[in-house]
Amino acid sequence: xxxxxxxxxxxxxxxxxxxxxxxxxxxxxxxxxxxxxxxxxxxxxxxxxxxxxxxxxxxxxxxxxxxxxxxxxxxxxxxxxxxxxxxxxxxxxxxxxxxxxxxxxxxxxxxxxxxxxxxxxxxxxxxxxxxxxxxxxxxxxxxxxxxxxxxxxxxxxxxxxxxxxxxxxxxxxxxxxxxxxxxxxxxxxxxxxxxxxxxxxxxxxxxxxxxxxxxxxxxxxxxxxxxxxxxxxxxxxxxxxxxxxxxxxxxxxxxxxxxxxxxx
Length: 264
Prior knowledge:
By secondary structure, this protein is an all-alpha fold. Helices cover 79% and strands 0% of the residues.
């Protein structure tokens, strides 16, 4: 039970910590104030508490699949804000396309939604043990360990990105965002499959014998690239389609940049 709580909480915390670390690094690279982080974390935590306490109400939405559909909606919303951010970060400052205030709002929304979504899942898990104090104590210890590992990993990624040369840091950060966005799209599809909003399918492959999803490595890859050991064709389509769309958005911003520079 201790290991289960560590793995489950680690997975949720890692996703949010990864986004915070990447966006913080990009903010520093582009000289954007990081004051938005505190507000985003606080807003996301409060929203997660609200969703957690309302789980009984949320669960009955959409004919009993409210939790899955709500989580999928938040995943897609994060994806959309990330698409906007990737476009804005690629547009040169002073071109009329980039606005620091707008970018702060977009980054804050990404983090707030991520914390809401992941925090909501953790709280729902913890609420299930409130009636058993002995089990709850073990679960809380595991949750604390998972949270510590997740935050430490996010901090490590942040300092690695900040220590890299500016060009490498920006390219690596953007590639990581593309992978995270693709993973979010695939995870949202999986939730809609669980809700019977998308058809169930047999998995395309099973790589659990190589990397188990419930291992620390599997959870790290889940947060980093959306690793799934038994993906269906629909999930794979959402993953690669989501990544392709992000790359297209980045390319369109690059073309805008070239046009702006040649125009000046």
